[in-house]
Amino acid sequence: MSDSEYDVVVVGGGPAGLTAALYTTRLGLDTALVDRGGGRAAMMQDTHNVIGVTEETGGVEFLETAKEQVESYGADVHRDFVEGVERVDDGSFRIDGSDAEYGADQVVLATGFSDVRPDPPLPPTGRGLHYCLHCDAYMFVDEPVYVMGTGDSAAYVAMIMLNFTDDVDVLTRGDEPEWSADTAEMVDNHPVDVVEAEITASNRDDGGWLESFEFDDGTVREYRGGFPMLGSEYNTDLHESLGCELTDDGTVEVDDHGRTSVDGVYAVGDVTPGHNQIPVAMGQGAKAGIAIHMDARPFPRSTEAIDELGPVSSGDVPAVSQELLATAVAHEGHAAGPRIEAAEEPESGDEQPADDD
Q1: DSSP 8-state symbol, 338
Q2: What is the pLDDT of residue 93?
Q3: Domain boundary among 296, 330, 350
Q4: 295 contact partners, CB below 8 Å, separation of at least 6
Q5: Which end of the chain, N or C, is less packed with Cβ atoms under 10 Å?
Q6: Is residue 324 one of the residues assigned to a domain?
Q7: Which residues lie in Acidic residues bias regions (predicted)?
Q8: Which of 2, 4, 20, 7 is nearest to 282 (CA)?
Q9: What single-letter DSSP state applies at residue 125?
Q10: 71 and 219 belong to one structural domain
């Protein structure tokens, strides 16, 4: 038996997992979010491209605010590392954490991926070392930029950055370029410098931002920031242990609502195909949460179920658990809140505010 039984357990507390948990909880399913902490979003110095969230919001603040929001609606948030997930005899799932065991009818695996980090010397992440062109290219308009790598992806990102600045280098860190002949022809016909010397030192300004790299050929080149393109390691161990199909690039195969090839298992966020962007991940989490609700909700009862179970009685509804019901009724977003406040009458003798006119 599990320590805690839920309708849904979400593994991974990034934007995708948090949004999935938000939706399943608000749609009446007992939900737990199990998060080990960290992740790519937590490393953000500033938040970009998330409408309504301003630049000065860091990743940790962004995620902690989201967790508090999810908890306020009645979800349980556990800080734990999930070591394994397996299906048990009744068709549900057992999620084994380092600290506890959790049971669930449906499981959402939002485990993301890890960027392959270049060797030092390096500038700080978010202050000259960046992993997302779509998030951070805007920061480097009309600034000198580097791209690290030897493959086609590095060459392409360097050429893409020419849309934003006229000063772009590819740094191969002492290795020969390995891109294709077609890519080589493209690089030769774009104003991109290929620097094969190894980096020996990284220099920063007073604010901690990258100023320049020193190279083993004695040169010093100024850069404001750049992008390592060394590959990604997708965290698919849990998915694979359950038999979920993977794509050729190592991501988890899903439908448009996050359903994997294994019934009851959903995958959302950076571990799935597509753009690695917070708004995209949030959209995937929302769609998965809605799909789980639609798959799991008991009402309306179908005609076949009515034949088997009989009509729905007043004692069968609402389907939401007593714990979620109590939380919802007490929540500031519940409809009864404004009605109660509006119905309150001042006690006799209380002064009324004067009209402005």
Answers
A1: H
A2: 98
A3: 296
A4: 106
A5: C
A6: no
A7: 343-357
A8: 20
A9: B
A10: no
Q: How many domains does the chain have?
A: 2
Residues 283 and 138 placed together within one structural domain of the fold: no
In this structure, the answer to whether residues 52 and 150 fall within a common structural domain is no
- Identify which of 208, 202, 207 has the alpha carbon closest to the alpha carbon of residue 223: 202
Taking the chain (357 residues) in runs of 10, the rounded mean pLDDT of each run is: 81 95 97 87 71 78 91 96 96 96 97 93 93 92 98 98 98 97 98 98 96 98 97 95 97 98 97 92 97 96 96 95 94 75 47 47
Residues 218, 242 within the same domain:
no
Residue ending a domain, choose from 228, 244, 263: 228
DSSP string for 241-303? HHT--B-TTSPBP--TTSB-SSTTEEE-GGGSSS---HHHHHHHHHHHHHHHHHHH---SPPH
Asked if 47 and 3 count as a contact pair (C-beta separation under 8 A), the reply is: no
DSSP assignment of 48-98 equals: -S-TT--TT--HHHHHHHHHHHHHHTT-EEEE--EEEEEE-TTS-EEEEES
Same domain? 200 vs 286? no
* Distance (Å) of CA 4 to CA 81, 102, 138: 15, 5, 45
From CA 331, how far away is CA 320, in angstroms rounded? 15
Distance (Å, whole) CA 179 – CA 152: 5
- Ordered DSSP codes for 137-184: GGGGTTS-EEEE-SSHHHHHHHHHGGGT-S-EEEE-TTS-----HHHH
Q: Which structure tokens are listed for 230?
A: 């060394």
Hey, what are 240's tokens?
Answer: 């694979």
Instruction: Domain of residue 186: give its range.
Output: 133-228
